[in-house]
Amino acid sequence: MKDLLEVVGISKRYATHQALQDVSLKVPQGVVFGLLGPNGAGKSTLIRIITQIIAKDSGEIFFGGTAMTPDHVHQIGYMPEERGLYKKMKVGEQLLYLAKLKGLSHAQAMERLKYWFEKFEIKAWWNKTIQDLSKGMQQKVQFLSTVLHKPSLLILDEPFSGFDPVNANLIKNEILELKRNGTTIIFSTHRMESVEEMCDHLALINLSQKILDGETSQIKKKYQTDTFVVEYKASEPIKAGKVFSVLQEKVQHNGTFMTLIKANPSVTANMMLEELLPQVQILRFEEKLPTINDIFISLVTNTPITDQFNLQNPSTTPLAYNHE
Fold this sequence. Notes:
Number of helices: 9
Structural class: alpha/beta
Largest sheet: 6 strands, mixed
Distance between the termini: 45 Å
Strand order of the largest sheet: 6-7-8-3-9-10
């Protein structure tokens, strides 16, 4: 897959604070790329360098295979977390102005505005001022200002902030449609469920350095822990056996047990079942796959992934056995 954006060895320092240290990553063309990290990790600094709002101290950025220049800005759409609309300006007038700043002619801008106003059913907003709109309505206008010029690269920083569930879903569907039409999207968020649902690739930055990078599916596979949730009926909880150890257990209100077990090295799920079946009546046997949130917390806090697993809210993927 061809890379639209390549960041090579980017560093940035503010006085005594090292914001980025030798960060490199590749963003393939036509994907949703999650840019993750705790507050203060350096994500916003990297985005501002890519959008040429601030200068890097060292490193290189390539856009479409060539060194990035100021001309590439017109191929980028950036929706920052801190919204930047003119409060007293009318919606239509403002969007027309911003579209022209991105290089659209008056006719092109009007054609695209008509398309989006009809699609979002907001034709009545044209003569309203931004300050007359709710926060969620302002967010819609901000999103439109970001996509009007059909950017090759769309950078969204917390795009669902301020949206109710209905409008958040609307914007999510628009993002995925833009991806299907070839737009590359960098998606920075703290909502890990959105990363799970939308991101094909991701990178995690912590303390100014990249600590994780790759395809989302491959990352989840890499951090599998051979841990399983077993729900069963028995007179007492199962004990650690020859092929597994017990990590957590709880007695449920209906008298059944739920236990989190971890396979010993080189042990398969079938081997675990062979040991369990003669002892208990199994109601459910599922692999406990780590979520992106589990992986995020584990890497940032330097704790085992299994420490993030919680039987009170098990997130599992059926593997081999589910019997009522």
